[in-house]
Amino acid sequence: MTVKLTVENAVQAKSEIEKLQTQGFTHDDIYIFAHDKNREKDISKALDTESVGMKEQGFLDSMKNMTVSRGDELRAKMAAAGATEQEAADYEEELDKGKLVIIANKNN
């Protein structure tokens, strides 16, 4: 089961993550994305959510993301977390507006 949400800020993200936990998702199932890497890292750390890495993407895709644009990297990571390619493109547009994207996936 995969749930995808957009929120305006970290306060809303915290509230949505708490709701996801009541639905049976663990911190390891929940990924949060922001367009700015530092903001994403800080919010993910503060809310104890997972980061998309080699486990979700595989070695080659993880290495490729080191050389592509932030938008390409975000779309690839959201797809690895459970979004379709079209959803990842749509969510990346939301990230451009300063929003946060939350993907909760029990299958990863």
Overview of the molecule:
Helix content is 54%, strand content 15%. It contains six helices and three strands, in the order βαβαααααβ. It has a three-stranded antiparallel β-sheet, with helices on both faces. The model has no long low-confidence stretch (mean pLDDT 84).
Provide keyphrases for this structure.
108 residues, alpha+beta, three-stranded antiparallel beta sheet, 6 helices, 15% strand
Number of strands: 3
Strand order of the largest sheet: 1-3-2
Question: Which structural category do the helix and sheet elements fall into?
Answer: alpha+beta
Shape: globular
Q: How far apart are the first and last residues' alpha carbons, in Å? A: 10 Å
Tally of helical segments: 6
Backbone CA Rg: 13 Å
Task: Tell me roughly what share of residues is in helical segments.
Answer: 40-55%
Series of H and E elements: EHEHHHHHE
The unreliable regions are none
User: What is the mean pLDDT?
Assistant: 84
The main sheet comes to: 3 strands, antiparallel
Strand residues, percent? 5-15%
Secondary-structure map with pairings?
Layout (H helix, E strand, L loop, with lengths): L1 E6 L2 H13 L7 E4 L3 H11 L6 H4 L1 H6 L5 H12 L3 H12 L3 E6 L3
Antiparallel strand pairs: 1-3, 2-3
